[in-house]
Amino acid sequence: EADIYQTPRYLVIGTGKKITLECSQTMGHDKMYWYQQDPGMELHLIHYSYGVNSTEKGDLSSESTVSRIRTEHFPLTLESARPSHTSQYLCASSEWTFETQYFGPGTRLLVL
Amino acid sequence: GESVGLHLPTLSVQEGDNSIINCAYSNSASDYFIWYKQESGKGPQFIIDIRSNMDKRQGQRVTVLLNKTVKHLSLQIAATQPGDSAVYFCAENSRSGGGADGLTFGKGTHLIIQP
Prior knowledge:
By secondary structure, chain A is mainly beta.
């Protein structure tokens, strides 16, 4: 089991609210990632980071933002949630020299 | 952009039989491939990976085969058990295709185990 954690696991929120999804890993990994996954579908990369103070956009355009102030922490923020943001959000991390990514359990977000 | 894909969205097998899950990729420059297993309500779990300089790699009850000529990847699971029931994704490193430094995932195959 990988030591990567996500909170909350489930979130139901109203339109227009600001939300932050938390992701932490205790493996000392430099690289961290956020993926978006609709039910039964493939994962799409929305953000990634090479290390502290590094944030990059992924292949899928997203209205969310991320920050990386500490190595172990990579939160994702939605300033104003909309129903179109309803999805599952998965956080992952990997060592600098290895491409294998380890995933957290995910956050299921429902925006009403 | 280029992506990996799977041939079948659902595969049903008898318990104890061998399972073969297939994946076709389109980026001939891809140099790293990985299989993940995702159980309901959980994040993807690493199963096995392979680099493009290899044709075959074996793990515990699993084997990954890579055919670069036809750009085909397969996952073989020996003696399938009820706990193998999940959605299986293949993925490739996006960077080799000029994409972001992450993984590009296929659409997934749901493996169903019949008792």
